[in-house]
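Supplementary Note 3. Input sequence used for the single-chain structure prediction.
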Amino acid sequence: MAKTGTTSQESKTDSASSGTQELPAGSTTTASRAGALERAKNAVRRPVRGKDAPEPPSKGDKGGDTIVYRTAPERRPRSRALTFALVIAVLIVSGALALNLTTGALDRLNPFKGMFGSTEIDRSGPAVLQSIQDLGQFEAASGYYELVVDVEKDVKPVPSFLAGERTLFIAAGSVDSGVNLSNLGDGAVEVNADRTHATINLPAPTLSAPTLDYDRSYVYSQDRGLFDRAKDAFSDNSAETQQLYSLASQRLAEAAAETDELRDRAEKNTRAILEGLLEPLGFTQVTVNFAG
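The predicted structure, written as discrete structure tokens, is reproduced below.
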């Protein structure tokens, strides 16, 4: 008994020296509750993961109130735009597949499939040669042109939105340049006695009529008033189209005649061809002169 009392006395002494007061099992104080709540808040604010995470109190712990807390899993932000784009793509692909399957099924179930069809029969007769024309024109060069024809018609004093039109026409075509060899006189070709020197006198190159490229010529834009639109609804505008073609051909001819580039190229090519024809025949010098 004396020994037990001594032990109790020593424990009281140790408790007093450490500055703490031993509480009976199961008791709770305001300080311990506040400390536990503070620890829980800190744990929520700064969740600790891995090996440094605090262990929950064991069942045999007779200390203060036991507070168990769990931290929410960390979520990664997702892009709403990416999700929306994926959903739209899936819907489009699904709709296309469904439409394809539906069309194929309806085509297979069609009882009239193969009963009706269209065929094209060509009953055109053979071409008949009407005439032959001798050509003495040597085409030595060809130029391809493209231009914009801007035509506007105003009806004064009526506003343009009621009457009038403006048309932008893209014109494309070619103009050839050549030498006419059909009217050469007796003195057009001169050869010396040794037949080593030849002189050829030719007329100046001329420009042919423009050839409009209908595949690449088209109306780019056309603005018309209300009255002109109503009139076109009851009439044929083929005459206006023909006027555009004629005006485009005129503009192409003017563009080719503005410079001598096409005619100079025709002279150069004609001279080169004649020299290539006569030099193998023993002519060491070939001179080609153009009139004008």
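Residues 253 and 259 are 11 Å apart (CA to CA). The chain has six helices and eight strands.
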